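I had to read the description of the data format several times before I understood it. In essence, backbone conformation is discretised, so a fold becomes a row of integers matching the chain in length. I therefore recommend that a typical entry be quoted early in the introduction. For illustration, here is how one protein appears when written out as sequence plus structure tokens.

***
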Amino acid sequence: MLRRIVLGVVLLYAQTPAQQSPLPTFRTGIDVVQIDVTVLDKDRQPVRGLTAEDFTILDRGKPQPIVAFSAVDVPPPIAYSAPWMREAPLDVVSNAENRRLVTIVMDDAYTDFNPDFAKRARQIARNAVNELGPADLASVVFTFMGRPQNFTSDRSRLLAAIDSYIPKQTAAAGVPIACGISRRCDVDVLSTVASTLSMAPPGRKIAVLISGGRGFSFGGPGNVHDEGSDLAKLFRDLQQANITVYAFDARGLPVGGGVSAENRKPGPVSAVGLNESLHTFSESTGGRAVTNTNDPESHVGEVFHESSTYYFIGFRTTADSNAKGLRKVDVKVDRPGVQVHTRTGYYPVQTKTEAADIINGLPSGELPVRATAAVVASRGRRDAEVILAARVDATAAGPAPIIIDLSVAAIDLDAKPHGVQKQTISVAPNAASDSWPDLPAHLPLPPGRYVIQISAQANGRSGGVALDVEVPKFADDELSASGLILQRRHAAPISDTILANLVPAVPTTDREFLASDDVAVFVRMYQGGKTQIVPVRMVARVRDEKNAVRSTQEVTLEVGNFSEGRSADYEASLPLDHLPPGRYLLEIDAQSGTRHVTRTARFEVMAAK
């Protein structure tokens, strides 16, 4: 059975903050069109230093005023001395970052089942992951079936998804039957990507399409093979979402030639048809197709470099809300010898959907929200309890208490809902620090993978974040662990009875501490099944920015520490008073024989003021 890919539940993790140009704030309405423009010189190097005065925007040949402009420089990948600074994910998500969003689309439906093609496709995708900058986020999706990965900063998850790629097209059977007659799976997936990212915050959105390519079928209305209307809708969706497609031919140089990425000279008709989709998808969105080469993976760095500097432009259109059809856009730059790459046009927006109204896994809104989650088993039930902490920064409202409406909803990777919790809370900032408190919430969920979306509203502003959560099979797994929880000691007692019976304190979303702070570390270990309980060795390490181990704490959870429910609590203190200012990784490693579980959390020690 074809596994349905639901990109509507993609997750965007907050990344390590990086110095980037701020994106402009566009006025709300349907009269402002947002585009991003890449300007390259004759050597395909990004042209920097342009201003709004250097650009002319032509909407159907008529100049239009530029109402918002920003030059954006995406930081290049950083060569960290400690691998964890590049690879370890964050366990706190936020909607406060502007970021480049990269979707890696691995086309297993229209790529031949060929070991060389598969190897080349995986390497292209791996190179894309390696090119991600410090604030970039990526996801992996497939046109037919595979192990999709929501948007994340966790490179190990991205690579695991890439490694699951296996082309499905064969000489004997052709493309998978579900993708060959009445529907086209590449179009479906790209449409889903566009639909989802249309509600993402402003920023560069890139789709890296890795495919064997195919020709299009046209037969006129009523013909089951005709793709005209589906392609028209796809191009409209990609234009509206402001997504740039970069396509890579995983076949290498096809026999008989093809359409060259460098010279664009067509070869034999049959060969041109094979990669027609790659050029059409990319060129209609201002991207680039890398074809007719046996080494497409070597061009990945060029593509990311080209997109590392761009100009985010908003211009006012004269089209009214009733206008239909593609409106052609030309972008002129007052510099000799440059190449301008942007989308070819736009479709007037006729309705505006607020992201807060849809569970889509995207960060949204102008109200800053951050959140963390930890999963713990619920004794006597197969469902686990996902414990959440959310912090809503309502600083603009002043020091007085405010009313916050908080909503928590979970959906699985097939978009099936699994519960909603809503609450209205009166909140005031902490008197000592002027920071806002962590708000607790919880949801019962069976084993599986979920996206949990947290939405908040306060004083007319709204915001939301999403968390990627995997619920283990605590009752069956021989060794498993709850989520890693950081807690401020001496915090206010938990008023929620369910939470109070599960954990000793409310988790904190803080990951920046002073040396004088008293922070506890909590993990609950489980030994499922019916085998004999055995001791578990627990090691807590703290690594610095050079990967040196700055602290080690060891303890053994003996058989007698485990309850009738086959669980035991591990607690330690974060050694903040022994650490100089800097960034660190906390590793909790649990081991029993060959069984091994690790939990991590990044944190920072701040200099005293």
